[in-house]
Amino acid sequence: MRHLRAWLQRYRLARLESFESDPPGRPPQRSPERPWGLRIPGCLTSSTTGAFADKRQGRTARGIPRPPPHFGETLLVQFRAPRPVSPPKLAPALAAALDPTAYCETPVYNPDLCPNMIAAQAKLVYHLNKYYNEKCQARKAAIAKTIREVCKVVSDVLKEVEVQEPRFISSLNEMDNRYEGLEVISPTEFEVVLYLNQMGVFNFVDDGSLPGCAVLKLSDGRKRSMSLWVEFITASGYLSARKIRSRFQTLVAQAVDKCSYRDVVKMVADTSEVKLRIRDRYVVQITPAFKCTGIWPRSAAHWPLPHIPWPGPNRVAEVKAEGFNLLSKECHSLAGKQSSAESDAWVLQFAEAENRLQMGGCRKKCLSILKTLRDRHLELPGQPLNNYHMKTLVSYECEKHPRESDWDESCLGDRLNGILLQLISCLQCRRCPHYFLPNLDLFQGKPHSALENAAKQTWRLAREILTNPKSLEKL
Q1: Could you read off the pLDDT of 207-228 as tens digits, one per residue?
Q2: Does the model's pTM come out above 0.85?
Q3: How many Cα atoms within 13 Å fall on the side-chain side of residue 175?
Q4: Under CATH, which architecture does the 114-357 domain have?
Q5: DSSP letters of 307-319?
Q6: Cβ–Cβ contacts within 10 Å for residue 197, how many?
Q7: How far apart are CA 379 and CA 371, in angstroms?
């Protein structure tokens, strides 16, 4: 049955040339010239959410956008149509058409084509594996070479910082061919997390009033003098992320002038973040942070959802024990807010927890393919998409498909298709909820025109992969 549904998905798309929507409340009109229509409910949950939602609402219980309601109550899919339809209209209908849970009044079945079902699925997986071995591995090798070059410069700068201020000790260490605290934003943009010591005299306060953020407050006013960071504590008893970042930025600027790589590295101006430009090609953001292990933020207490079997209890325990980071960086969700607590807030980050969740099966391979496609085809003006958006959507796809068998190598094509369709839906709705913090929108602050352009480009990409897997050789 699973193979039949997969074949039906591809068959519908391969025969699909046009979509038409009928006004709400009016029955769909079937054209006599094009009699082979397929009536599909239009306002269905997106293909990666795994549950139906009320048509009057714009999102599922998990906060994932569904196709917007203005596309009509019902969509009439025509297999023969003379005119094309723009990508923004195609995508929501396509998401419904490819949803294996969708109800169809007129089932599509052709016994002559069913023997090709498994072959078509295997063909897509074959070309995806070939793409991974050729394009993705080449990308990984190039980024690994860049990381080694970048980390030499950053390590030298941080050593100079440590000489000036011993409280900022470099934590950029290589372990098992991997640098602790380093995140790849894009092939030319990186973030290095510098872990600080002695958070013990502060209480972690997360009441949900600051989406994606929390504050650190003295547990006892009498312990102020005991803190290693006493001069960065406000009169209200908060440890100010902004003050620490400002001090660190001054130290890094001085270190850049003294380090042995001063001819190839310079500070990025006009930002409160600590950013270095290396050889005029790479940008590295260095972010002071505290590592919080053994605790879990209240704003993420809803996770895991009780009705979803993924991940299992053992993996949940591992993830929560891994904890999270508190970063001293600007938070876009607090833009324009001026209160002291908000300007001193720390940004929540779950990088290690997310990495642990996405272990096993073809999850990492799927993410690697998505990152490569993004780098090659979705690096657009306004920077609407980055690798973290792809990582987030993989986590949501894991919820939709909780069984390990759903992430077998043979299912790679289905998982990739589901994620691309969900990405189109999120871009059209201009909302991509953070996986652990659904009240935090990862598209906040992105230009609407950039998101619309990304939706069109993602649609073209998804259509090319779905209808012609061999095109991956040129993508």
Answers
A1: 777 889 999 988 877 777 777 8
A2: no
A3: 6
A4: 2-Layer Sandwich (3.30)
A5: T---S-HHHHHHH
A6: 13
A7: 11
- Domain limits of the chain? 2-113, 114-357
Q: What is the mean predicted confidence (pLDDT) over 103-123?
A: 56
Which residues are CB-neighbours of 360 under 8 A, at least 6 positions away? Answer: 404, 407
Listed residue (306, 322, 315, 299) closest to 213, CA to CA: 299
Residue 283's CB: how many other CB atoms inside 10 A? 17
**What confidence tens digit (pLDDT) does each residue in 427-446 have?**
999 999 999 999 999 999 99
Residue 396 and residue 244: Cα distance in Å, rounded? 34
**H, E, C per residue of 165-200:** CCCCCCCCCEECCEECCEEEEECCEEEEEEECCCCC
CB 472 within 8 A of CB 125: no
User: If we measure between CA atoms, which residue out of 315, 314, 319 comes closest to residue 293?
Assistant: 319
How many Å apart are CA 5 and CA 12, to the nearest integer? Answer: 11
Per-residue CA distances from 332 to 83, 240, 313, 452 (Å): 42, 17, 33, 20
Check: CB of residue 46 under 8 Å from CB of residue 64. yes
Helix (H, G, I), strand (E, B) or coil at 292: strand
At residue 278, φ and ψ (nearest 5 deg) are: -110, 125
Which residues is 348 bridged to in the sheet? Answer: 326
Instruction: Look up tokens 């993989």; give the residue.
Output: 394
What is d(CA 91, CA 96) in angstroms, rounded to the nearest whole number? 9
Are 36 and 80 spatial neighbours (Cβ–Cβ below 8 Å)? yes
Q: How far apart are CA 445 and CA 154, in angstroms?
A: 29
Q: What distance in Å separates the CA atoms of residue 285 and residue 291, rounded to the nearest whole number?
A: 18
